[in-house]
Amino acid sequence: MLQCLTLVTHNTASPNLVKLIPLVSIMLLMLSAFIMPLLKKKRHLFGLTGGALAILMVLSFVNVAYIYQNGGYYFDIGHFPAPFGISLRIGEIESLIALLFAIVDLMVTWYAYYSLEKEIKESRIAFFHTMNLLLLASLLGIVFTNDVFNGFVFLEVSTLAACGIIVVKDKKTNIKAGLKYLILSSLGSGLVLMGIAFIYSLSGHLSMDYIHEAMIANLDGKQNTILISVILFTVGLGIKGAMFPLHIWLPDAHASAPSPSSAILSALVIKAPVIFLIKVFYKVYGTQIIHETVILDLVLLFGVMGMIFGSLFARSQKELKRMIAYSSVAQMGYIFFAIGIGNTLGVVMAIYHIVAHALTKSSLFLAAGSFIEQTGFKHIEDFRGIGKEMPVTLGIFTVSGLSMIGIPVLPGFISKWNLAMASIQSDKLYLLIFLLISSLLNASYYFPIIINGYFGEENLDGKVFLSKSKPIKQLLPLIILTVLMVLVGFFSGSLIEFIERGVYTV
């Protein structure tokens, strides 16, 4: 039986310095963001961003190592403990997601150093870095928070910052996509706020742990109010997490934004709200309450629809980045599918797939950005034979694409295999059909790009070997992301075991 997610007892032996890491991480990013507009030179902008992200990565790694040895802990902000003050809760899942976000953002920033000025005006680079750091700080706040209203505040900050990295190109399509995201995301935030109002009226608390205790103690006669509140949270966070059919902002935003922005949006921005939703389900409401509602069945339905229709839409696209954007809808479908199954293995695989997809999709978007940057083309048909001109970049795209399809050893296969096992455990064998269909659809739009990129004399005619390839120092962040993605597959057993520790009460 799935227990209260990431609810871990206070570890009084944890050193004060380790407990400060979450707060220091958020403050470091925010302070760096406010300093950014004062800098003018490109190397200073990237130096500050890269330095802050490198420090964040080290701090996050220390946090993971400590939690691996000692378990999770709480950190109270200010002079008042919960329920009167704001508290952060950092366990296995939160620390792992923070490390993931730091690594991906650092690699994207590394890539952006060589390519960003080719997509946006030089005068807008400082704005991009400011928004990026504020965005990452707010996403970490969403992941760390143990207070639902504090989570809402960070959601609002992330919305504005995400709009910033979308419109930074300063073109009509970007502004239109940014406005669409702002309107829909604001609607999602409003629904979340209404959900918070409902559960506050039921419990009198904003702290997740105290809300859960109060609702369990006063459950009788409140079922309808609880159902309304959980639906509000699900729809609101589903909009932000690109749950089908609430995903309509995503294709335009991801396809029109600069490639570094697309990578951040797909790898990070749509993941934090899902983590928040899982915490709401299993920390705020708890297993008993959530299984007495129909919400998991609805999430499962939307997950299946996302897996199938996201892939069908991706298959029909002509532009490469737009195809990858719709692929993200399909992959988020797997995550909601995993949550909707409703058992322990399902939730564990939702977290695992978040990690795998963040590494894979950031690599795919950056590889696609490299194709577009070096050739000037956008359409899939224009990249026939690109493997001769850019073999390393296509190799990176190939490995990432194979993971999306679910080739054994790669993390995409690990996710799908374990989702099949979770479906069997929950006695929902019919779900295996949807997993199979979605995998075949994934193959139908990734394999043609890979095959046409490498093979066929008509594709290679007139192409010059390595003529458009980037220097290795520019490709290194993509290589690192791909290697990490492969390692997530090879060492999936240890990673899944670590995630499981965060799912059970200890």
TrEMBL record:
Membrane-spanning residues:
20-39, 46-68, 96-114, 126-145, 151-169, 181-206, 226-250, 262-282, 294-314, 334-355, 394-417, 429-455, 475-499
Is Cell wall biogenesis/degradation one of the keywords UniProt gives this record?
A: no
The record's listing under Pfam families reads: Proton_antipo_M
| UniProt topology in membrane | Multi-pass membrane protein
InterPro entries for this protein: CPA3_Na-H_Antiporter_D (IPR050586), NADH_UbQ_OxRdtase (IPR003918), ND/Mrp_TM (IPR001750)
Keywords for the protein's UniProt record, in alphabetical order:
Cell membrane, Membrane, Transmembrane, Transmembrane helix
Report whether Methyltransferase shows up as a keyword of the record: no
Q: Where in the cell is it found?
A: Cell membrane; Membrane
| Record domain NADH:quinone oxidoreductase/Mrp antiporter transmembrane: where | 146-441
Principal localisation: membrane
Q: Which PANTHER family match?
A: NA(+)_H(+) ANTIPORTER SUBUNIT D1 (PTHR42703:SF1), NADH DEHYDROGENASE (PTHR42703)
The family this protein is said to belong to: Belongs to the CPA3 antiporters (TC 2.A.63) subunit D family.
**Which protein are we looking at?**
NADH:quinone oxidoreductase/Mrp antiporter transmembrane domain-containing protein
What organism does the UniProt record list as the source?
Fusibacter paucivorans
